[in-house]
Amino acid sequence: MPENIAENTENVIENNQDKTESVSETNSMSNTQERSYESNAFYEMTSFFEDCIEDLPINIEDIKKFAHNPQIHIKNIRKICRWAYYENGSVMTSINYLKTMFTLDKVVYSKSKTKRKKKFENARQLMQQTLDTIRYKEVIRDNLFNDMIEGMDFKYFEITKSVFADKYLDDIDTLNIVEINELGIKCAIINLPVDYCRIVGRKNGSPIVAFDLRYFDDMAEDDKRRKLQAFPREIREAYSKYSTHDNIKSWKVLNNDNTMVTKINCKAINPYGVPLMICALGDVLYADYFTSTKRNILDQLNNQIIYQTFPEAKDGRCTLTESQQKNQHKVVKDAITTRQNKYGKSFFSLAAGTKLNDIKVDTSIFDEKNENANKSKVPADLGIASSVLDGNSTGNYAVATLNLELVAGNVYDWINMFIMELNKCINANIIKDKKLYMECAILPVTFVNRDKQVKYMTDLYARGKGSLTAWIASTGWDSDVYLSLMDYELDNDWENKYPTHKTSYTMSSKDSDPSDADHSNGGRSKVAEKTNENSIMSENLNGNAQPKPSTTN
């Protein structure tokens, strides 16, 4: 990035840390540092930011206040949404369903035109290998999860030349390693903490990100060292300068070629995305209150209050002496307490006229109608029909299918936003050819509509205008894997070694042997010898003969 842009951006951040930032557009190209790269030397790194779930003093009035202006209260909204995801089963199920509904089948292509097929194929292979190395499906699902919970997601595409030469590691080193690759760490997707990242501008439509280096200030030295090792080199070097120089500002503008940013449920000019479940928080709080009330009622039932009334004479005085009253009270108390704590029978005697009663508890809240109504509210707030999640009879198949298609449209848009950012980073750091821009595209295939999408691709291909690659990918197969299997089989002459069985579907008139022709049957092939007893008997008895209208006896 040019120095003037970086300086201006940092000044804006420094002067407006607690204000909503204005997003500007710039088309200036940044100078990227050339790094060595080997196509087979990949390594996946996992950052380990803890999901901090806090018990917040929230109520419905707080929710209304936060929802009125989410850009101002975005941190509180994120905390509540994290709590809601782990607290409410309907929220967790809905979010998990949305992030996994797409199969994420991909195709790799380029809109750039080149006559050098070898160069194009090498670039395509680099794109394929990078996607496989970072496990792109896991990365996309993680992005969707963060978008729905946090409202936005920040990731960093890290390239490094480090090599693990030392086979002995300390406790801190082991926390950062998923796989030890002898060729070294080459490519990794690192999550950045959303509360310490801000969008401060745009370059060619892609958001420019700044990171708050004060994230590490309050950590103990061991924790700081552990955290820094999990962060990109750019941030580690920036924090080293920040911690040793007084004149270095706290916000570091990151290289746009390495950052991936997505946000949902907001305008393009808004600095923060809004979590998906913000509309469901009111019903989540109600569901939590509803469940707590049921627990209290169950506690009352399990701690039932029983009282006894001693027999009375006509004048209203108890017929039992004080000693008899105490003795009977103790007998009844011991018997009931023993019966509640132990399973079995309890026996005791009471004076004539003694009455035993209990305080009734209202259990109408356990009515199934109340339970079902409460369960359906939260998924509906998230845009999902409850029948989709639990298969209940409140909706029909057509309505559920329409609901899935509408929901899938939103999720597909979010996926495409991230794919554009991912394509940007791979081209800038791996392929490094401005004249040959490779792209990955995710097909609009879900686990529900796969049959329909495969039919679409089949029809297109059958009409001579379809893509074999897209057709294969829509079935769930990686096209490169499928085509490599076909190449292997062709190279080994499987077509002739293992010929297709001759059936009415696989044979044509040219395939029939003239010797098999039955001229008494119009020249058609002879029927294979029958082995079924019923068929043989029917043929011998001429059971299949059909009389003709002109036949005369």
The outline comes out as extended
What fraction, in percent, of the residue positions are helical?
40-55%
The fraction of residues assigned to DSSP E strands is 5-15%
Give the strand order of the largest sheet, numbering strands 1, 2, ... along the chain.
1-5-6-7
- The biggest beta sheet, please? 4 strands, mixed
| N- and C-termini, Cα separation | 102 Å
Question: Would you mind describing this structure in some detail?
Answer:
With 553 residues, the protein is α+β, with helices and mostly antiparallel strands. Among the domains are: 3-285, no CATH class; 449-499, no CATH class. It is built from 19 helices and 13 strands. It has a four-stranded mixed β-sheet with strand order 1-5-6-7, covered by helices on one side. The protein has a three-stranded antiparallel β-sheet with strand order 4-3-8. Residues 1-54, 176-185 and 521-528 have low confidence and may be disordered.
Would you kindly provide a brief summary of this structure?
By secondary structure, this protein is of the alpha+beta class.
